Amino acid sequence: MRIAMIGSGYVGLVSGACFADFGHVVTCVDRDVSRIEALKRGESPIFEPGLPEMVESNVRQNRLFFTTDLASAVASADAVFIAVGTPSRRGDGHADLSYVYGAAREIAAALNGYTVIVTKSTVPVGTGDEVEAIVREARPDADFSVVSNPEFLREGAAIADFKRPDRIVVGAEDERSRDVMQEVYRPLYLNQPPIMFTGRRTSELTKYAANAFLATKITFINEIADLCEKLGANVQDVARGIGLDNRIGSKFLHAGPGYGGSCFPKDTLALVRTAQEAGSPVRIVETVAASNQLRKRRMADKVLDACGGSVTGKTIAVLGLAFKPNTDDMRDAPSLAIIPALQSLGANVRAFDPESMAQARPLLPNVEFCDEPYACVEGAHALVIVTEWDAFRALDMDRVKAALAEPVVVDLRNIYRPADMARRGFRYVSVGRP
Fold first, then answer.
1. Residue 286 to residue 33: CA distance in whole angstroms
2. Cα–Cα dist 17/58, whole Å
3. Quick check: is 115 in a domain?
4. CATH number for the domain harbouring residue 333
5. Cβ neighbours of 179 (radius 10 Å)
6. Strands of 408-411's sheet, edge to edge?
7. Which of 32, 120, 216, 332 has its CA 20 to 30 A from that of 404?
């Protein structure tokens, strides 16, 4: 099949490369000329393990193409995926759908023969109806269907998630478009992932409901961690104790500094706004969003307490800036709340991250960025671990202690054992553990 992918950001590029790897012929479209030229040179604009190699392989085999010419890509496509950004709209928290609707208008002008238009972007309920109305108004003669096919990709594991998905959700309103989507995903049949066909609005809501539920699990265990600290309990043991219950499951029960990234913060907020407008508020999700924002800022208080109640004039070394490991994504990363809070308390901040420092520099002024972890901790009065990169899990802690001006470690990801750190002579603070 011939596929056009409108948008060559995270979702669009991963999806386009994976579809090409299935054997489809895919053209990724983007308005950003520099991004398209970089992709043609084999340079990936995002960090995702395995993606550069997949892109290079499929470009070499003439299955993956990049262009700024939307019209030509759409005109020859059997399916056109809209994978543009839907950031939170300033002022009200609703998803900004201007890029989606703009893409729909451009697609309408280029349609040639029966085409399935697929919203891959995360969009509020009813967006597919609006896309269909936009295209129908612009091209009353066009032969097309509009389908919802939300993505469920974890940054850092996106290729595995795409190729071995838990499920594929397709919101289609007619048999013809269902047949096309069956063919799009036919290469996955050997893996036998469940393909769930449902209504378009149900599909749109499924994506928001999934992200809101996962965000709720994270926020729940974070609040239990706070309670553990007050009561002298161990949140990791609590999480294991409840996670072994197969009705609950162990995933997303790791206490930390709060969730971030491209999905959970904006999607929980968009669901809250949608529910409020529908007259059916989701009070649990409202609380989750508010609790998560507060949690990030409160992590700076942990550092403050560990440093004896003051960080004025002190140097704080921060390891990890991206919102999670194996990505360079800084969107709503906890570090973006923690570091400014420390600076406002009078601290000087040094930082290191294996992949995200280029993205972090313009977002974190007056931070000294270092080339490697040990340079970051040299002479610092405390080390704060914000992102659990593998490279931080096995640091030479004797070398770290010798480098620090004071042996203080604040581990916001619980990657070290309290007993081991105490034995080495550290003043060690973690999350939800005695």
1. 39
2. 7
3. yes
4. 3.40.50.720
5. 12
6. 367-369, 348-352, 315-319, 382-385, 408-411, 427-429
7. 332
Domain membership of residue 207 (yes or no) is no
Do 17 and 132 lie in one domain? The reply is yes
Q: Is residue 223 part of a domain?
A: no
Domain containing 421: what range? 234-429
Q: What is the pLDDT of residues 319-361, one digit of tens each?
A: 999 999 999 999 999 999 999 999 999 999 999 999 999 999 9
- The reply to whether 263 belongs to the active site is yes
- Residue 292: the pLDDT is 96
Q: How many domains does the chain have?
A: 2
State whether residue 106 is helix, strand or coil: helix
In this model, does residue 91 exceed pLDDT 80?
A: no
Based on the domain organization, do 72 and 121 belong to the same domain?
yes
Supply the DSSP string of 305-374, one letter for each residue: HHTTT--TT-EEEEE--SSSTT----TT-THHHHHHHHHHTT-EEEEE-SS-HHHHGGGSTTEEE-SSHH
Residue 363, both tokens: 């977002």
Burial class (CB in 10 A: 0-12, 13-18, 19+), 185: middle
Do the beta carbons of residue 306 and residue 339 sit within 8 Å? Answer: no
Q: In the numeric block, which tokens belong to residue 2? A: 């011939």
Which residues make beta-bridge pairs with 195?
168
Residue 413 three-state SS? coil
Catalytic residue among 18, 263, 307, 370: 263
Residues 244 and 144 in one domain: no
For the CA atoms of 73, 103, 16, 52, what is the dihedral angle to 10 degrees? Answer: 100
Q: Is residue 217 part of a domain?
A: no
> What are 46-85's pLDDT values in tens digits?
999 999 999 999 999 999 999 999 999 999 999 999 999 9
What pLDDT, on a 0 to 100 scale, did the predictor assign at position 406?
Answer: 97
